[in-house]
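Inputs:
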Amino acid sequence: ETGVTQSPTHLIKTRGQQVTLRCSSQSGHNTVSWYQQALGQGPQFIFQYYREEENGRGNFPPRFSGLQFPNYSSELNVNALELDDSALYLCASSLTGNEQFFGPGTRLTVL
Amino acid sequence: GEDVEQSLFLSVREGDSSVINCTYTDSSSTYLYWYKQEPGAGLQLLTYIFSNMDMKQDQRLTVLLNKKDKHLSLRIADTQTGDSAIYFCAEGSYGNKLVFGAGTILRVKS
């Protein structure tokens, strides 16, 4: 059974650019959640997708958007990057809802 | 509102027990979780407890929940150097977002 995978591993962008991060959920999992983890902090919930529909959103501006595909993989898009967007972005998948399994994350650096 | 607090740092000797504590505020939380994060890695789900339980044991891990005081603890028996990591407490309701604490750094001295 393949776990949650994310790509790319690392990414460097400049302010104002746009970025797309990708996540493949664990086999059979229909729910994907995205979290932002700034250095030295716990993960903060960005949003969740269930069967291709957004199913809850945290306190993040609209320039953070997402998609979920029919195979339940997901993308996180961030427009107009700011320095404070530098963080580890984590994707988590789940089936039953009470167990969320995390991928290794994508380290985004904004210069 | 939702808030989860943890102590920042714990240092123990190899073979001793570690106890990591956490307090949370949302009384409607259905599940309380413990995750482990090693340097440069994602989060590993260690265990979780349903809010109507007082205790859960899983091999070296024991979770205690005091719902009245909104206090959660994780006890690691016979702590090993491989247990050195950051431990996150999180609260959540079924199928919804997780709210994490800032993490407790566990350092195990050999």
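Chain A touches chain B at residues 4, 6, 31, 33, 35, 40-45, 48, 50, 55-56, 58, 90, 92, 94, 97-105 (CB under 8 Å). Flag for discussion at group meeting.
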